[in-house]
Each structure stands twice: as C-alpha cells, then as structure tokens.
Write a structure and sequence with these properties.
A alpha/beta; B mainly alpha; C mainly alpha; A: Rossmann fold; 5-stranded parallel sheet; 4-stranded antiparallel sheet; B: 75% helix; globular
C-alpha cells in the first residue's frame, strides 16, 4: 500500500513497556496527530517512526517496504523536528540552514526561500547565539523547506512559537499536505482542523518480563 | 502479556539453569579436588622450576579462561547486537567480572611464578603486556555496562567495546610466537601434540575442566540474579504506575 | 522528492560536514591551540622530573613525545560527538542520506586536521628540547603522521561509546588507553631505531604503524557508527 504505516508496534525502553499493539497509517496528503498525556510514549512512537528506535515487536512500512531495510533512504525521505534546535550558535542563520541542505545533498537554492517563508530572512547573517528561543525554533523548522522531503515527523512543533508562528507553521503544513506530503506531529494543540486524524495513546502497565511470577 | 518478545520471557532459561546448576557444582567440586590433589601431591617437581612449577596448575588454566571468557563475551556481544537477544546482553554482563577475575589471577600467579623463575615480578614483554591490556579491556567493559542510567544502552555500548577489543585475543595467543619474549611458548595446544609430560598434563587438564565448569556455575548464578534484579525493577515500575 | 535528487554523491556532504567542523573549531577560538599548548607543556614537565642530562633526555624523548601526544588526542577526542549530541545535531546527521560510517570519517578527519596536524607541527620543537639527533626527526614525524590518525579513529569509538554516560572523561581513558598501546609501542620503536642509527630497522615499525592505520580505518568507523546509533536510541 502507498503511504506510511505501522502495525502492532511494541516499544520497550529501559526495561519498561511504553506501549504495545499500536497501529497507525498515513497516506500522502494526510496528517496524523499523536495525542495523549505526558509519558504515554508519543515521543517514543515518533522516534520509532524516524528509525532511531527499533520496535520490540511490529513493523513500520513506507510504501509497503519496511523502513529498517534501508535506514539511510528512510532518513533521506524524512525531516525530523525534535525538542532540540540542532543549531550551532557560532554560525549564522544562513550558515546553519545551508549546512543541513548541503549534507542532505541539496543545493543552497532553497535556503533563502526557507528563511523568508518562516519570516526570518533578516536573521540570515546573524549568529544563532543572538536569536531568541522562538527564532531558533523557526530556524530549525526552516529545514522543512530547505530540505524538501515527503515525510515530516514533528515533536511538539509549535512550542515556543507565538500565535503568528503557529499559524504560519499550520499554513506551511497545509501546503505540504496539498503537495502530497505526510505530516505526523505529537502535539497538545489542535492543528490543521479537520484535515488531521488523531491517534490517541493510552498508558499501559507492564515490563519487558511480562509475567512477574 | 506473557510473551511480549519471543525471547523476552526468561523463565525457560531459569528452568534450565536450575536443572544444570547442581550438576555443574558437583562436577566442579570433584574436578577441583582431584585436580588439586594430583597437582600438589602427585606430580613431579620441575627440573628447572622446582616446586614452584605447581603454580602452573592455577596459572595456565586461568590464562586459558581469561581468553575463552573474552571470546564468550565477543560471541555473546555479536548475538546481542545482531539478533537483539536480551539474554545475550545479560550473559555478557554476567561473564565480564568472572573473566576479569581469572585475568587478575593469571597476572598475580604469573608474577609469583616469575619471581623465582625469572628473578623479577614483572617484565614488559609482549605476552604479559597483552594480558594486562586484556585486564583493562575487562575493566572498561564492566565500567561501561554500569555507566549509563539506562541499562540497555550500557549493554549495547559494552557489546561494541567487546567486539572491538577482541583484536587483542589473537595477539595474546600468538605473542609468544611473534616476538622474542621471556614467557615460554605454547606447550599444550600445538600442531605437533603437547610437549608436556602426561604426569603434568593430566592435572593441568583436570584443573582447566574444573575452572570451566566453575565458570558455568558462576555464570548461571549471576545471570539468574540479573534476571531477578530486572524482575524486582519491573515490579517497582508497575507499583509506581499504580 | 525522489531519492535520486537527494543522493548526488557522498563526497559533497562529507565535505560539508568537514567544512562545518573546521569552521566551528576555528570559531570556538583555538581548540587546536589549547591541545598544542597542553602537548608542549606536558612534555616540558618531564625534564624537571628526571633532570636535564642530555643523555637521559635523548633516551626518553620519543616515549615522552608519544605519550603526551596520545594524551593530547585523548583529551580532545572526548568532545568529538558531544556537542552534536547535546544540541540535537547528531540525530539529524543520522537522518542524512549518507551512511553514518562516512559521517564518522568526515568528523575524524576534521578532528585530525585540528589536533593531530598541529601536534606534528609542534613536534620538532620538542625534538630540540629533548636533544634528539637530527636523523631521528624525519622518522618521528613520519611515525606521528601515521600514528595520530589511528589515535583519532580509535578515540572516536570511545567518544561515541561514552556519549550520555556518567563519568565520560575518565571512562573514555579506561576504554581507549589500552587500545592505544600498540601505536605507542611501534611509534617509539620507530624513533629508537632511527636514533640507534639504522634506517633499515625503522622500516618494520613504520610498516606496522601503517597497517594499524589501515586496520583502524576499516574497523573504527563501523564500530563508531554502531556506537552513535545506539546512543540515539
């Protein structure tokens, strides 16, 4: 099947069963919001989707092929927005962004466009050191445009953004969906209205050593 | 939830370990008693080393153990990284301190034997140095397994170290052939058969077998206690979760 | 948005990473300078300890230079992945189309250029301070040129293994120093052979240093990449 899907996923971290039997599916043009209280495993599920974590059970497929069969290809088709901004403070906005473009095999052509789209073109020649938390977040998000990839995996994409910034990222996500992209985000906000489906995670109790008798 | 992961439930291992353990304990005791008797009372003194040759019956088997336990660590680490078998991590974690112990015994007995034999406690030759490096590799492995708050991460890091450090094992084995060293060459495992007399070979082999079964016993006990520790932790986690 | 557009060669992305690391090292204001200063200062301490007799200094010179070079590399290699790990860059590096092994190579190359190479430049000064005969300088530089990349490569394994651990620095020395022993043995053997006056006998340890470099080029990036991947879990 086309798209991104996971079946019967079990995640164990540090001997703790985080979740089990989780299924998800997102086809091109669809957004999926991961919901649930803190500690329920939203970030872990995202890290499974990116490929940092390997599920203890279950499979994750892209267009029907397991992502574990070619991790580099899966990395190339995803943009991951984590909690950390991945910026070098001594480098300018443009230098930071063009590094990520170049190392992903893209030219610098989208870099200025990306900065402009996120309203931070004036930060192109400013070292990241001098930027506010919101500006750094925008610079990190600008990778979405500078490194064009179909799959966007985002952990709390709108934290530390102002209202205008949240609207902006929602617009940009909508354009990405229109172009046939996939957006998966762990968030407590209501993003993208009725274009998004929700996946609600619930707490589980258990351990790696299932029965404790 | 009885079978989350096809290997995750260690109860089968515990059953097997419980069945094996009494036997390996008995065999270890028998081998050790007979080996020590032959080694200390019923084998000749060496024309060169005199009575101090009896140190050999501890020194040589522990040297073998130090290398075979490292090889065991290497194989367990490969299994753990490639097939993600959780028991392999536990086995590696349990084996490393035993290996470090045997290596320390090797170094100490070698030193005790070297003083009357060579007139010095220690020389910086290839065999001694590479065994010392092995000891530090064991210590590094133990330190690394305990250096992370998440035991899984420590186990994986240690597994990579065990694989990298394996290059040292052939160096130890062949150091006496590759370099001119004070340490004598191989006299038991040779292409042309052992060059050692039967009256010495028998106790040596008995002691080696005794050390091996001792390793099996201690390993089984340590893996079981690791499993129990994990179960306790899991119980606490489920209590914390209410 | 196909893989073809993102996969134009491995070389350009590697150069991008190498360039970034070099630029960061320059921007942070003399990481390399500190390493060289440590190298020279530590080596200068020994004559105070063992006395200034020329014969003694010549005898211990190569060993001191190798040990201090090794410690200088060890001190600097700890931070090889740490900054990228702490600011989240390492995760994103893992998601580039380039295999992690190549990224490791690029980072190690940057590390060597900013530490190993400056050490080489400072070595002749130490050679003079230790009254090494002029004939020993060439072999010693050659030995360091072959040996220090090995130190960086092996150090990278330890650096990646200790990411996110408690007691990183001390643990790193425990892991890496035993693996440095062969380089130290054959590195000093080169200089000793050159001092004792026979160029021919220096050949074998140089060949072995080259072999160690090739072996670590093959093994270390793989082990380091595996260690980095597990650090991201």
């Amino acid at each position: 099947m086309s798209g991104f899907e996971g079946r019967d996923l079990t995640c164990i971290r540090g001997g703790r069963l985080v979740f089990e039997g989780v299924n998800f599916a997102a086809s091109p043009g669809q957004a999926l919001l991961l919901r649930g209280p803190n500690g329920v495993g939203k970030s872990s599920l995202l890290r499974l989707m990116v490929g940092f974590l390997v599920p203890a059970a279950g499979t994750i497929n892209w267009d029907g092929t397991p992502i574990s069969s070619d991790r580099d290809a899966h990395g190339a088709r995803s943009v991951y927005i984590g909690h950390l901004d991945a910026l070098k403070l001594s480098l300018t906005g443009a230098q930071n962004l063009s590094f990520w473009a170049r190392i992903n095999g893209h030219g610098k052509d989208h870099v200025l466009a990306a900065l402009e789209r996120f309203g931070i073109l004036h930060l192109a020649d400013i070292p990241a050191q001098l930027m506010s938390a919101g500006q750094r977040k925008r610079l990190n998000l600008a990778r979405l445009i500078a490194v064009p990839s179909p799959l966007w995996l985002m952990d709390e994409p709108v934290t530390s953004l102002d209202a205008e910034g949240s609207e902006l990222i929602e617009d940009i996500m909508a354009v990405h969906l229109d172009a046939g992209g996939i957006v998966i985000a762990a968030t407590h906000q209501d993003l993208l209205g009725n274009r998004a489906t929700e996946l609600r995670l619930t707490p589980v109790i258990g351990s790696e050593y299932g029965d404790l008798a | 939830m009885a079978d989350l992961h096809k290997f995750a439930n260690p109860n089968r291992f515990v059953r097997i370990a419980r069945a094996v353990l009494p036997w390996s304990n008995i065999v270890t005791a028998l081998l050790l008693i007979s080996g020590l008797y032959l080694a200390l009372f019923n084998s000749p003194a060496d024309y060169q080393h005199g009575q101090s040759v009896r140190i050999m019956y501890v020194h040589v088997p522990s040297a073998w153990m130090s290398m075979s336990i490292y090889s065991f660590l290497f194989v367990a680490s490969l299994v753990a990284l490639i097939w993600r078998h959780p028991l392999a991590h536990l086995a590696a974690r349990a084996a490393a301190p035993i290996g470090a112990g045997f290596t320390l015994v090797t170094l100490v007995t070698g030193s005790l034997w070297g003083k009357p034999g060579w007139g010095t406690w220690w020389v910086w030759d290839a065999r001694l140095t590479s065994v010392l490096v092995l000891f530090f590799l064991y210590l590094g492995h133990i330190a690394l397994t305990h250096a992370h708050d998440n035991p899984e991460r420590g186990a994986k890091a240690a597994a990579i170290l065990a694989i990298v450090g394996f290059v040292n094992v052939p160096i130890i084995k062949y150091s006496v052939d590759w370099w001119n060293t004070l340490h004598q060459g191989a006299s038991v495992i040779r292409a042309d058969g052992p060059s050692i007399d039967g009256s010495m070979l028998t106790p040596l082999l008995l002691m080696s077998l005794a050390f091996t079964t001792y390793f099996v016993s201690v390993l089984l006990i340590r893996i079981q206690s690791e499993i129990n520790a994990r179960k306790i932790q899991a119980l606490q986690l489920s209590q914390a979760a209410g | 948005m196909t893989n073809q557009t993102t996969r134009n060669g491995t070389f350009a992305p590697m150069l991008a990473l190498l360039g970034r690391d070099l630029r960061l090292s320059l921007a942070s204001g003399g990481d390399s300078a500190m390493v060289v200063v440590f190298f020279v200062l530590a080596a200068i301490l020994f004559p105070f300890g063992v006395g200034p007799e020329s014969a003694v200094l010549t005898r211990i010179g190569s060993g001191v230079i190798w040990v201090t070079a090794l410690l200088a590399v060890l001190l600097s290699v700890e931070r090889l992945f740490l900054a990228d790990y702490e600011d989240g860059s390492l995760e994103l590096l893992a998601l580039t189309p380039l295999p992690m092994e190549f990224l490791v190579l690029a980072k190690v190359a940057a590390h060597w250029l900013t530490t190993g190479l400056p050490l080489l430049v400072a070595t002749p000064i130490l050679g003079l301070l230790y009254h090494l005969p002029p004939a020993a300088f060439g072999p010693m530089i050659l030995a360091l040129m072959l040996g220090t990349p090995t130190l960086s490569l092996v150090g990278a394994i330890g650096s990646a293994l200790t990411l996110g651990s408690r007691r990183g620095g001390v643990l790193l020395s425990l892991l890496v120093l035993p693996l440095y022993v062969p380089v130290l043995i054959f590195g000093t053997a080169v200089v000793d052979a050159a001092i004792s006056g026979s160029g021919e006998t220096a050949k074998t340890p140089i060949m072995i240093l080259a072999a160690l470099l090739l072996a670590s080029l093959a093994l270390a990036p793989w082990a380091t990449a595996a260690a980095v991947r597990q650090a991201l879990e």
